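Morning, I've got a small favour to ask if you have a moment. I owe you a coffee for this, so here goes:
>
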Amino acid sequence: MTMTAPTEIGIACRDIDTLAQFYVCAFGFTFISRIDVAARPLADLPLSDTAYTVVRLQSPFGERLKLLSAHVAYRPSAQQRPARNLLGTANTSFLTVIVADLAATAQQAMRCGATMLGETVRIRPDLDIVFLQDPEGNYLEVAQYGDIRCYRADLQPDGDRREIDEGSASQTSAFFKAPPPPSFP
């Protein structure tokens, strides 16, 4: 498989305009497009049996958020989500935003409508995180690394890349063994 563009994440939402404004205000995403999609039979597309709107936002590194909202007379209620033990609920997901100044970013996000789920925690000497919820209750992890080059050397200019030592490289490749290809009759 060859990916042809950065990853896009879809988020179903109730109030697409409020959520779009939140991600622009809180994290500096830029507005790319707004598209209204006509209703399709449910068998054709599992997203919605009514018309819906897609708003695309792009991060400074090129990842995109696709906010999707069905055109319905009612507004679905927000999903009840736990404020603690996120990993205790199957299928829980969160968006991670890696920033240079965690405190300033968290404060900006709260000014834009986020709710803080706890204090900033130092996970290890080079990593601080805090969890927030956006205005519709979706989880957000805001992370700050002491030296981002140690975590994402691939994002640095070629002359500034840090080498991965052979020990950690072999551990990684041993952990991520590719499954055998499927066999077809």
User: Anything to note?
Assistant: The chain has two domains: 1-72, 93-154. The first strand starts at residue 8 and ends at 12.
